[in-house]
Amino acid sequence: MWRADVITPPRRSVTRFFIPLIDVLILLFGIFLLMPFVSRPPEEGDDKSAPKAAPAATLTADVQELQRQLLEAQKRLERFQRDRANLADRLSIRVLQIDPEKGTLYYFDPDRQEVRTAVDARRLIDRQRRIAGAKDPYFLILYPRASGFPLESQVEHYHQWFQDVPFGFDKPELAQ
């Protein structure tokens, strides 16, 4: 007699079913991997999806266009390299520093000179142009390493003072 409250183990093991199934799946996967090596290459008349050869005239026109673009790119590269080499010869760089305690601009000539107003900045620009001669003056403004200066209002003043000449800011990267 069969009782519902007793759990009985299954009569057949589940592995008796899964082991042959896994063997068959491995066999099918192996065949799938070997199919590209065993299949025959398509013959010329069989494959209709093969791209047709482009006419020789369009190929030569494309090659000529590519050669023209290559020559143009090489000329641009030579010009950029020549300009880059001449950049140091064309610029007269004046380094300005920002005081970490007050945020004012200063430079050394030979002792410390401060740039407090637009008039001082104009005087410095004119002096640098006289010294540089044929070269273009460039003003590099160095930020202090660890300071709350310059304030945004001071940076706006610096932009206004040097708007007529090339200038740039150099912010030091903090070590991590």
CATH architecture of the domain at 94-170: 2-Layer Sandwich
CATH class of the domain at 94-170: Alpha Beta
As for the CATH topology of the domain at 94-170, it is Nucleotidyltransferase, domain 5
What's the assembly state of these chains? single chain
What sort of overall outline do the alpha carbons produce when their principal axes are compared? elongated
Terminal CA distance reads: 79 Å
Along the chain, the helix and strand elements come as HHEEEHEHE
Tell me about the largest β-sheet: 5 strands, mixed
Helix content: 40-55%
Count of DSSP strands? 5
> How are the strands of the biggest sheet laid out side by side?
3-2-1-4-5
Low-confidence stretches: none
Radius of gyration: 39 Å
Mean pLDDT: 80
| Amount of beta strand | 15-25%
How would you summarize the topology of this molecule?
Blueprint (H helix, E strand, L loop, with lengths): L14 H24 L17 H35 E8 L6 E4 L3 E4 L2 H15 L3 E7 L9 H10 L5 E4 L6
Parallel strand pairs: 1-4, 4-5
Antiparallel strand pairs: 1-2, 2-3
Describe this structure in words.
There is one protein chain. The chain has 176 residues and is α/β, with parallel strands linked by helices. It has a domain at 94-170: Nucleotidyltransferase, domain 5, CATH 3.30.420. The protein contains four helices and five strands. The chain has helices spanning 15-38, 56-90, 118-132, 152-161; strands at residues 91-98, 105-108, 112-115, 136-142, 167-170. Strands 3-2-1-4-5 form a five-stranded mixed sheet. A hairpin with a 3-residue loop joins strand 2 and strand 3 (112-115). The protein starts with 14 loop residues before the first helix and ends in a 6-residue tail after the last strand. The relative contact order is 0.09.
